[in-house]
Amino acid sequence: MGEFVRLDVEDGIGTIRLDRPPMNALNLTVQTELSEAAAEAGSRDDIAAVIVYGGEKVFAAGADIKQMQAMSYVDMARASHGLQDFTRALAGIPKPTVAAITGYALGGGCEVALACDFRIAAEDATLGQPEMLLGIIPGAGGTQRLARLVGPAKAKDLVFSGRFVKAAEALAIGLVDEVVPADQVYAVARERMSRYVGGASLALRAAKEAIDRGLDTDLGTGLEIERMLFSALFATEDRSAGMTSFVERGPGKATFCGR
Predict the structure, then answer these.
(1) What residue numbers bound the domain in which 215 lies?
(2) What is the pLDDT of residue 13?
(3) CB 59 within 8 Å of CB 46
(4) How far is CA 8 from CA 18, 44, 102, 157, 213, in A?
(5) pLDDT by residue (tens digit) across 215-229?
(6) Is 111 a catalytic residue?
(7) 3-class SS string, 208-223
(8) I want to staple 98 with a disulfide (CB 3.0 to 4.6 A). Which of 16, 118, 223, 250 is the partner?
(9) Are 188 and 145 contained in the same domain?
(10) Catalytic site residue from 33, 111, 169, 209
(11) Could you tell me if residue 259 is inside a domain?
């Protein structure tokens, strides 16, 4: 447990909880603690899926601008690798992840949400990449992950303008996957992640890796990544259990051990 970020585990689901009132601003300490929580969540066998959650009022309202204001080019050139490292760590969790978004997910907060596999937003949530209004651009993955998620034209609209997006529009453009009443965000996120508890964890890891790595390359290379990961799963006990169960009892009845 860090000063501002903790990892709670219940019933196979890990919750990475941001807790830096009032707005969960992502200072260097929060960034480091998010990286540490992501690494722990990825390595623990008792965690099948992960929720990133900022609490009932706000997800994360961006970077700590007061901390950044006095930084020079040299300062930021040195710090910028760390700025991307914490969202890379979240995106690299080898398990299904979902951002449970309440209140604001702006700037770095939106980039944290983009680093997750899924995004569930409250009906009154607000998302956006307003860095342009500060004379900069997103620096923790926003220009890259946003364009891959919603397409280049919509990403350029949001990044060029810096405008805020309400939950309904975010759903319409594919920025979030589901919009629910604010008091149900975390519960719905848990329900979504619960479907992976007890699942074939090695196959889930392989599927996530194949999709994410494939998006970063050409089709032929992506197909080769898929082929290698597919073949590797035939060395696992889960593959044997899954296929044996299917042949003997039909689909959906296998018990997996994660080996």
Answers:
(1) 201-249
(2) 98
(3) no
(4) 11, 12, 19, 37, 29
(5) 999 999 999 999 999
(6) yes
(7) HHHHHHHHCCCHHHHH
(8) 118
(9) yes
(10) 111
(11) no
What tokens does 55 get? Answer: 């609490």
Q: What is the DSSP letter of 135?
A: T
Using CA atoms, how far apart are residues 144 and 137, in angstroms rounded to an integer?
11
Residue 254 in domain: no
Assigned domain for 122 exists: yes
Domain harbouring 230, CATH code: 1.10.12.10
Q: Does residue 205 share a domain with residue 169?
A: no
Q: Is the pLDDT of residue 62 over 90?
A: no
Same-domain pairing of 126 and 220: no
H helical segments located in 44-122: 65-69, 73-91, 108-114
The question of whether 178 is a catalytic residue gets the answer no
- From the list 131, 178, 209, 224, the catalytic residue is 131
pLDDT category at 82 given cuts 50, 70, 90 is: confident
256 inside domain: no
How many Å apart are CA 3 and CA 20, to the nearest integer? 8
φ, ψ for residue 127, nearest 5 deg: -125, 160
Number of domains forming the structure of the chain: 2
Last residue of a domain, one of 194, 220, 238: 194
Note the pLDDT tens digit of each residue in 112-157. 999 999 999 999 999 999 999 999 999 999 999 999 999 999 999 9
pTM of the model: 0.93
